[in-house]
From TrEMBL:
Protein name as it appears in the record: Actin maturation protease
Keywords: Aminopeptidase, Hydrolase, Protease
Protein origin, superkingdom: Eukaryota
Annotated catalysed reactions: N-terminal N(alpha)-acetyl-L-cysteinyl-L-aspartyl-[protein] + H2O = N-terminal L-aspartyl-[protein] + N-acetyl-L-cysteine; N-terminal N(alpha)-acetyl-L-methionyl-L-glutamyl-[protein] + H2O = N-terminal L-glutamyl-[protein] + N-acetyl-L-methionine; N-terminal N(alpha)-acetyl-L-cysteinyl-L-glutamyl-[protein] + H2O = N-terminal L-glutamyl-[protein] + N-acetyl-L-cysteine; N-terminal N(alpha)-acetyl-L-methionyl-L-aspartyl-[protein] + H2O = N-terminal L-aspartyl-[protein] + N-acetyl-L-methionine
Region of interest called Disordered, as start-end residue ranges on this chain: 1-56
Presence of keyword Hydrolase: yes
Compositionally biased spans, kind Pro residues: 1-24, 42-55
Family of this protein: Belongs to the ACTMAP family.
Matching InterPro entries: ACTMAP
One Pfam family cited in the UniProt record for this chain: ACTMAP-like_C
Coiled coil: none
Length: 337
């Protein structure tokens, strides 16, 4: 996805900083205890923000990794233009068409998400910004506003987000949307809830462990990352008779016809391998990712430990009481208008 490019001079080395401990987040309203199934109660809004102090002469806070990520962003921008959503999805499906079972017919539901490359450890806030384009007014909500409120609320120090509940509070306050905290993992009774949510065109925020190719892996939370999913590819035995058209270039792939009533398909049963794929984006690539649902479920369910490299990098991070396990493990966020 990247291409060789000239590297700018190394940025000046900042003066050494006194190592700062991990900052545990303050106890919150315990309306969101971990539960074996999805949380029915909406996330309550936080108290009003205090008036901002005068900004004259104030320097922006340092975000670790900002210079490095800007170089990555510039390299990606030079590599190729960002494809349109449907074009990028079709490119992805053609690339992976051999993975799809020939005994099933495939239905693609996908809302169009923009791309945004993160700067520093802002993967969660970037994923929320992308989700917000489906939920906010057409003008959108600037990423800087999400960073500002998250910092003022004590949800983050460097741009990191280690609490799904805090992410839900931030979404409700800044985006004005509904947020449902999903606990107990993406399988079991939550699976149909997630798939119906995506079929309806609403975004899902998912923490997971990121592999070198951005796909979900299992590193016990050491590579914790955020993605936003706004699409799903379903393999079905029988295609509903109303409201779908077949792709002329990819036989066996169907889309809902825009503007027409659409009969919902029967969701594939859990335990059938290779029948459900999530279409997701995350803050290190312009392109959609196509992930097997079970792979995402398993990665999300094993986020238990804080990365040793981050624990020893001398930076401050906001981690909830109970650590990564309490803040991320087996949790996701359903966002609605």
């Amino acid at each position: 996805m990247t291409s060789p490019c000239c590297h700018p001079p190394d940025p000046p080395i900042p003066p050494p900083r006194t190592p700062a401990p991990i900052i545990p987040s303050l106890p919150r309203n315990l309306a969101f205890p971990p539960a074996p199934s999805s949380l029915q109660a909406p996330i309550p809004p936080p108290p009003p923000l205090p008036l901002p102090p005068p900004a004259m002469g104030a320097a922006p806070p340092h975000v670790f990794g900002l210079e490095k990520s800007r170089l990555l962003k510039e390299a990606l921008e030079k590599a190729s233009p960002v494809p349109k959503g449907r074009e990028d999805v079709k490119r992805l499906l053609k690339l992976h068409k051999d993975r799809f079972r020939s005994d099933l017919q495939w239905i693609l539901f996908c809302a169009d998400l923009p791309s945004l490359i993160q700067e520093g450890p802002q993967c969660g806030l970037v994923a929320l910004w992308m989700a917000g384009t489906l939920l906010s007014p057409p003008s959108g909500i600037p990423l800087e506003r999400l960073v500002q409120v998250a910092t003022e609320r004590g949800y983050t120090a460097q741009g990191e987000m280690f609490s799904v509940a805090d992410m839900g509070r931030l979404a409700q306050e800044v985006l004005g949307c509904q947020a449902e905290l999903l606990c107990g993992g993406l399988g079991g009774p939550n699976r149909d809830l997630v798939l119906q949510h995506l079929v309806s065109g609403q975004p899902l925020l998912i923490p997971y462990d990121e592999d070198f190719n951005h796909e979900p892996c299992q590193r016990k939370g050491h590579k914790a990352h955020w993605a936003v999913s706004a699409g799903v590819l379903l393999g079905v035995q029988d295609l509903p008779s109303l409201g779908y058209s077949e792709d002329p270039e990819l036989p066996g792939l169907f889309y809902p016809v825009p503007g027409m009533p659409c009969q919902p398909p029967s969701l594939p049963e859990e335990g059938i391998p290779g029948a459900v794929y999530l279409l997701s984006k995350q803050g290190k690539s312009w392109h959609y990712q196509l992930w097997d649902y079970d792979q995402v479920r398993d990665s999300n369910l094993q986020l238990t430990d804080f990365s040793p490299s981050r624990a020893n990098d001398g930076r401050a991070y906001v981690v909830p009481a109970g650590g990564v396990r309490a803040g991320l493990c087996g949790q996701a966020l359903l966002l609605r208008q």
